[in-house]
Amino acid sequence: MSQIPALISDLAVILISAGLVTLLFKRLKQPVVLGYIVAGILAGPSIKQIPTVTDVESIHIWADIGVIFLLFALGLDFSFKKLMKVGGTAVIGAITVVIGMMTAGYITGLALGWGHMNSLFLGGMLSMSSTTIIFKAFDDMGLRDQRFAGVVFGILVVEDLFAVLLMVLLSTVAVSKHVEGIELLDSVIKLGVFLLFCFVVGIYLIPSFLKKAKSFLNEETLLIVSIGLCLGMVIIATQAGFSSALGAFVMGSILAETVEAERIEHLVKPVKDLFGAVFFVSVGMLIDPQMLWEYKIPIILITLVVMAGQILFASFGVLLSGQPIKIAIQSGFSLAQIGEFAFIIAGLGLSLKVTDQFLYPIVVAVSVITTFFTPYMIRLADPAYKQIDKMLPESWKLFLKRYASGSNTIRQKSTWHQLLKALVRIVGTYTAVCLVLIFLWLQFVTPFISTYLPGLKGNLLSLLLLLSLISPMLRAIMMKKNHSEEFLQLWNDNKYNRGPLISLIILRIILCIVLVMLPVARLLNVTLGIMLSITLVLVVLMIFSKRLKRQSILMERHFFSNLAAREVEEERNAPIDQRFANHLLERDLHLAEFEVKQNSPSMGKSLKELNFRQKCNVNIVTIIRGNIRINIPGGNERLYPFDKLVVVGSDDDLAHFRKYIEERYKASTAAQSKAKVKEMKMEQIIIAEGSRLIGRSIIESGIRDKAACLVIGIERGSTSIQNPPPSTIFEEGDIVWIVGERDKLIQLSEGEIVTSE
Q1: Of 137, 329, 470, 541, which sees the most CB atoms within 10 A?
Q2: pLDDT value of position 79
Q3: For 756, which DSSP code?
Q4: How many helices (H) and strands (E) does the chain have?
Q5: By three-state DSSP, how is residue 624 classified?
Q6: H/E/C letters for each residue in 268-296?
Q7: Does the pLDDT value for residue 3 go beyond 60?
């Protein structure tokens, strides 16, 4: 008998143990991630009494794949545009948490005598809360519609980006073995250019590709294409000197801007769940219970640092951003744990051989403990707020209230600020893309052309093709915003503005001259004067070329059309204007969406009958029924299955409304389950000699009216009559096929149904 490879048998052990343990954890209402880690401990080499994994190294391959799909799924939920929309609260809160926890973790590591590198990685591990755990906890507790939940989700979005950047920076520090300011700056610049280039080129090409291929993209092909794009970006990222996780995250964030993002996320979820489970099980396999007992004091200490530090820094950051103290405390208590990024950073330290073996299981143990306490910490937020509110002096409360209201005031930005911000965005983006294209062209395309056309001719051809490729972007760098409303307003308002405005144009032209000289100097062996003359001629041609102007405008329109496609689609389907939703938040009101379930007791009733306004103090502002949107519905409007109700109210009122409709649904479902289920069956009846059915038609027999059954066929001799008409006469020996409720068929077969006379 042939032997199966160890990889397959090990995978079987992993999935069987994961399945059994997670079923137990589901029953105990604990996070599934904890079950995976416990399953890993059981399947790992530390437990000798049961069948365990034999080849741990091969499982690392599965774990790496798991990290790729975890980061890909995070990228799909991330979206760079979402990052720009999260607002100052999320950014200030996330920065405060990351800086504060990195410092706290680093100091804790040094205090424990773990050395510089272990302490640095420990700080990175402790600075990221768990997106997966918090989402699950909010879902289970029905808090996703609460105001503070939006703040927490925004902070998690920013932390996801910081985590990816942190992985790159820690890798750089680990390789160099020390912190070098110039080297770190170089890594940050390279990372920024890489992210910007991938995002711009990806948004320009991928949504258009998916749109053109839409008619061919069923679920199977879309899944294959999405995973192919993900792994392709993984290869590009690793070739560029970055991690595979970064490549997966970048491609996920690019696909998050497409109209197909929700479909892709839905299709990738089972793949992510499978390999994510293997990753978390592999995390547990590296844990030795004896080592945990040995390091019990550091585990308890770090757990306290995480819970106290996250609550303190997150609450302070949210408060600093101008949110009320209640929102700040609720956000801080929700973020009091570490999760998947802690495992990934710990694994990075092990793979780079810069952290000690004991650090990994310690961090996993801390994550398990803090994850276990997450629901309890969220519930503790309200009592903690009430206690703090009692202790705070009235003068402090008044100051915090004024600070929060003052921070939310919209300040008009100056015209100079608007113009400079737009120019920095345009010039920075196009410059980064041009630099990467020039580098790639000189590195790969020029040698390829030279093999077929060597010498000056090949170099000239390569130069012309490259300039044709980047010239629309160079023209945009020089000419964009020169005729904008802000530029003209500054030009006409004050003559002293004209000097700086002209200087901005000259500086951008000089930048383009430098960008053009890079390939000219590389490909043409000429003196500096001739090279500069050629460059100036090319730049002047770009400025006055109407064709380049048109091409530049078309490229920009295409890019922004792709970038805004998902947003346009969401706004088209949005229940209410987002600006109105933001306006509500300032009054402690916000919107939530609820669906009318099948068999809901509200189904078929009017809003006047349901009277949600009086019972729950909420208002139904919109009913979405398929593609129909009923805004400000009247009292006579009735609810139907799968209607989506957009409800406005405060946090407490919305929580009361959710509880009210869930209790009504449960009561209705319980009542329906007690009702007798009437099963439909199909039977055949033989018309025997002496039967009262002989000589009667189907309609006269009473089979339909009295027995509530349906005659679907009659076999008569060698012939068969399908769906006989009601006038068909029964004859002796007929075999009649009847469909109906089981008890009625039994009565009919026993001759208990009385026919009409």
Answers
A1: 329
A2: 65
A3: P
A4: 31, 8
A5: strand
A6: HHHHHHHHHHHHHHHHHHCCCHHHHHHCH
A7: yes
Cα distance between residue 232 and residue 330, in whole Å: 41
Q: Residue 360 corresponds to which tokens in the numbers above?
A: 């990994």
pLDDT of 580: 45
**CB-based contact 305:104 (threshold 8 Å):** yes
Which tens digit of pLDDT belongs to each residue from 275-332? 888 888 887 887 778 888 888 899 999 999 999 999 999 988 888 877 888 888 888 9
- Cβ neighbours around 469 below 10 Å, total: 14
Mean pLDDT rounded to a whole number for the chain: 79
The mean pLDDT value for 35-41 works out to 83
Q: Please write the tens of the pLDDT for every residue from 151-190.
A: 888 888 788 778 877 877 787 777 666 555 556 666 667 7
Taking only the tens place, the pLDDT of each residue in 362-404 is 888 888 888 888 888 888 988 888 888 888 888 887 877 776 6
Q: For the chain, how many residues are written? A: 757
**Which structure tokens are listed for 685?**
């009846």
Q: Are 124 and 109 in contact (CB under 8 A)?
A: no
Tokens representing 190 are 């390279």
Could you tell me if 699 and 725 are in contact, meaning their C-beta atoms sit under 8 angstroms apart? no
What is the distance between the alpha carbons of residues 649 and 616, in angstroms, rounded to a whole number? 9
Identity of the amino acid at 703:
I
How many angstroms separate the first and last alpha carbons of the chain? 75
Rounded to whole angstroms, the Cα distance separating 321 from 407 reads: 7
CB 312 within 8 A of CB 97: no
Q: Which of 348, 317, 350 is nearest to 242 (CA)?
A: 348
CB atoms within 10 A of CB 139: 10
Classify 680 as helix, strand or coil: strand
Contact assessment for residue 552 and residue 472, using Cβ atoms and an 8 Å cutoff:
yes
Q: Which amino acid is at 176?
A: S
Q: In this predicted structure, which of 100-109, 400-409, 503-512, 558-567 has the lowest mean pLDDT?
A: 400-409
Q: Is the pLDDT confidence value at 505 over 60? A: yes
Side-chain-facing half-sphere of 419: CA atoms under 13 Å: 20
Please report, rounded to a whole number, the percentage of residues in the chain having pLDDT higher than 90.
5
Nearest to 139 by CA among 378, 314, 340: 378
Q: Convert 332-389 into a string of H (helix), E (strand) and C (coil).
A: HHHCCCCCHHHHHHHHHHHHCCCCCCCHHHHHHHHHHHHHHHHHHHHHHHHHHHHHHH
10 Å Cβ neighbour count for 185? 10
Q: Which of 151, 175, 161, 81 is nearest to 127 (CA)?
A: 161
The sign one gets for the Cα dihedral 690, 696, 697, 701 is negative
Amino acid at 67: V
Is 563 within 8 Å of 79 (Cβ atoms)?
no
Can you give the three-state secondary structure of 582-612, one letter per residue? HHHHCCCCEEEEEECCCCCCCCCCEHHHHCH
For residue 714, the cross-strand partners are 721, 736
Distance CA 562, CA 573 (A): 18
What pTM, to 2 d.p., does this model score?
A: 0.66
CA-nearest of 757, 705, 703 to 734 is 703
Helix (H, G, I), strand (E, B) or coil at 45: coil
Q: Which residue has the tokens 């100079």?
A: 416
Q: Which helix (H) or strand (E) holds 722?
A: strand 719-722
Q: Which residue has the tokens 């034999």?
A: 54
Please list, residue by residue across 291-320, b when 16 or more beta carbons sit within 10 angstroms of its beta carbon and e when fewer do.
bbeebeebbeebbebbbebbbbbbbbbbbb
Cα–Cα distance, 385 to 183 (Å, whole number)? 45
Whole-angstrom distance, CA of residue 687 vs CA of residue 733:
5
Are 737 and 710 contacting, i.e. CB atoms less than 8 angstroms apart?
Answer: no
Could you give phi then psi for residue 737, rounded to 5 degrees? -95, 125
